[in-house]
Design a protein that fits this description.
single chain; 165 residues; alpha+beta; 4-stranded antiparallel beta sheet; globular
């Protein structure tokens, strides 16, 4: 068999090995020396990263948190256990994809999870608070963020509640 004498086969094998190596190198959330590093390592609820992507008059917020589930049962991160609350005290609706299973954290475990929310322009005018079973975390401070100043379909990332452009 002359399969391994072909240049294309060796190129594909090399690309496959490189892809496997890259996936093992990039399997964790980035850690930087910003506000995330200042959080207490033993805090049960920690903000890891906020990614906001404008979609014309609305925006999708990808919220990455670390949570320690002390319950003897798994926690499914869906309302009413998990809520994002705007300045008016109303719940911000989650952004749900039909094919995606809800995020969960096993019993007696600590895990990093990503939750998605669908924000209106008015939601960005004040603070946003994340609530998980009564434990609250400030996601965005009270400084207004003008959605019109963000480029459409261009994600912005923050690692603290201080969202400035």
């Amino acid at each position: 068999m002359h399969l391994f004498k072909r240049f294309e086969v060796w190129l594909l094998l090399l690309a496959g090995v490189a892809a496997i190596w890259w996936s093992f190198q990039s399997d964790s959330l980035p850690t930087d020396d910003g506000p995330v590093a200042e959080m207490k390592a033993d805090a049960p609820l920690q903000l890891r990263r906020c990614t906001l992507e404008r979609d014309f008059g609305n925006a999708r917020l990808d919220l990455e948190i670390r949570y320690k589930n002390t319950s003897p049962r798994p926690l499914y991160l869906t309302p009413p256990d998990v809520r994002l609350i705007n300045a008016a005290g109303k719940d911000v609706p989650p952004f749900i994809l039909p094919a995606e299973k809800p995020a969960s954290i096993e019993a007696q475990a600590t895990s990093d999870v990503r939750l998605r929310f669908w924000l209106e322009k008015a939601d960005l005018a004040g603070p946003l608070t994340f609530d998980i079973r009564g434990q609250k975390l400030e996601v965005k401070n009270s400084t207004p963020l003008d959605l019109e100043k963000l480029e459409n379909k261009k994600p912005r990332v923050w690692t603290s509640a201080n969202w400035t452009l």
